[in-house]
Amino acid sequence: MVHLPYLLLGIAPIASAQYASAAAPALAPRATVGPSAGRWESLGNLLVSPPSAVSWGANRIDIFGLDVKAALNHKYWNGRSWSNWHAISDKQLISEPVSLSWGDNRLDVFALGTSGSVIQQYWDGKAWGIEDLGGVLQNNPSVASWGPNRLDVFGLGLNSQVYHKVRNGTSWGGPGWENLGGTMRASPSAVSWGPGRINLFVRSALNGSLQHKRLNGNWGGWENLGGSLVSDPVAVSWGPNRLDVFAVGIDHTLQHKWWNGTSWGGWESLGGRWVSVPVAVSDQPERLGVYCQGHESAVWYRHWNGTAWSPYTGLNGTIVSKPSVVSRVPERFDVFALGTDHAVWHN
Ligand SMILES: *[C@@H]1O[C@H](CO)[C@@H](O)[C@H](O)[C@H]1NC(C)=O
Ligand SMILES: *[C@@H]1O[C@H](CO)[C@@H](O)[C@H](O)[C@H]1NC(C)=O
Ligand SMILES: *[C@@H]1O[C@H](CO)[C@@H](O)[C@H](O)[C@H]1NC(C)=O
Ligand SMILES: *[C@@H]1O[C@H](CO)[C@@H](O)[C@H](O)[C@H]1NC(C)=O
Ligand SMILES: *[C@@H]1O[C@H](CO)[C@@H](O)[C@H](O)[C@H]1NC(C)=O
Q1: Residue 170 domain-assigned (yes or no)
Q2: Which has fewest Cβ within 10 Å: 97, 132, 145, 340?
Q3: Distances (CA, A) of 248 to 93, 121, 122, 298
Q4: Which CATH number do you get for residue 52?
């Protein structure tokens, strides 16, 4: 029996027990009509963290997750077939992995090591490398990139303040971390819509409001965007000067706030009954998909088509982790989550 740490399954902080339903079938995901109009396929393995998927091109998907030894595992789609799973290193990790690609044939994966420092494992086009960025964080970091060789990592220190570290070119800027202050909870969400730009969102530990900080050459102050959130926020951008932020509200509906280039809109409630932190993906300008583990432990989603939100659609099947979603071409969304067998399932 594998004991799955609460932290790793990413279902915190909402008590999922209250959603347990007698009707929820204890089955692995099964075939349905989904975003890819496909059916669930098992990609195997036995993971103790939610999967993290990333795509650097139309014919490429990389998936990461922690195996039962807490080592980072990797599997990829090359446009024709899936590779086998392999362990990237035997380094033990204690948070869910966060993956990102800043260019063709480049991968970066971040997670906390056993001492709470940030461990980066990267594919440089030829080989895997590993680096310890130091620090002591409470939770998995958030990473953004605005261009080749640029990485900005954010996380919450033990004092609940937000810390930042930059890789510009070939090395990380010094041994320390920049303190951005605040009194925050869980994990921040960082997004970049263009060179030199980062928008950072994090939930206040004082009252659950959404706090925002903007990098444009220099950091601005913390901006209070209100709201009453019970999950981490997640931010996405479909183009220059556009931001969409999603989180679960205190009423357990999906909450949405957006920046249209001149002002903030929202909060808008998108309804539902959400268990996991939402996952937001944009496949093209003016288009968004937002996914979560919802009631009956199924994947639920709504899409924004430029003028309206689609109704909620569920992908039949029981999942035990939050989903990870990538769009490698417009109109196509690939969804990954752990099934009840803790294998990775793909729809
Ligand atoms: C999926 O679930 C819906 C609603 O629960 C049900 O109507 C539908 O028949 C199911 N489809 C499959 C393929 O199981
Ligand atoms: C990043 O590195 C480039 C090239 O070395 C340099 O020109 C630039 O000033 C650096 N930017 C920052 C923010 O350090
Ligand atoms: C909530 O906390 C933030 C700081 O984290 C503060 O700016 C804001 O005024 C507070 N809101 C209320 C309603 O107390
Ligand atoms: C953003 O929204 C505000 C308020 O609805 C509106 O007045 C403004 O024209 C919008 N800006 C853009 C660029 O769409
Ligand atoms: C978006 O969806 C709404 C409601 O279904 C529909 O009326 C509208 O035509 C759609 N817009 C586009 C661009 O598909």
Answers
A1: yes
A2: 132
A3: 27, 30, 32, 16
A4: 2.120.10.70
259-283: average pLDDT: 94
Q: Ligand 2: which atom is nearest the Cα of residue 169?
A: 2
Token pair 């320390």 is found at 176
Average pLDDT, the chain: 88
Asked if residue 34 has pLDDT above 50, the reply is: no
Instruction: List residues near ligand 1 (CB under 6 A).
Output: 31-32, 316
311 lines ligand 5 (CB under 6 A): no
Region 162-166: what's the mean pLDDT?
A: 97
Q: Would you place residue 29 in the very low, low, confident or very high pLDDT band (cuts 50, 70, 90)? A: very low
Ligand nearest to the CA of 315: 1
> Is residue 1 included in any domain, yes or no?
no
CA dist 260 and 303 (Å) reads: 18
What pLDDT does 17 receive?
28
Per the domain annotation, does 118 fall within a domain? yes
pLDDT (tens digit, 9 = 90+) per residue, 37-96? 458 899 999 999 999 999 999 999 999 999 999 999 999 999 999 999 999 999 999 999
Instruction: Find the mean pLDDT for residues 259-284.
Output: 94
Domain limits for position 155: 6-346
168 ligand 2 Cβ < 6 A:
yes
Closest ligand to 183 CA?
A: 3
CA 317 to ligand 5 center in whole angstroms: 28
Provide the β-strand partners of residue 87. Answer: 73
Give me the number of domains the chain comprises: 1
Tell me the CA–centroid distance for residue 112 and ligand 3, in Å: 29
Q: Among candidates 324, 289, 321, which has minimal Cα distance to 305? A: 289
Q: Is residue 46 part of a domain?
A: yes
Residue 5 has pLDDT above 80, yes or no: no
Ligand 3 atom closest to the CA of 204, numbered from 1: 5
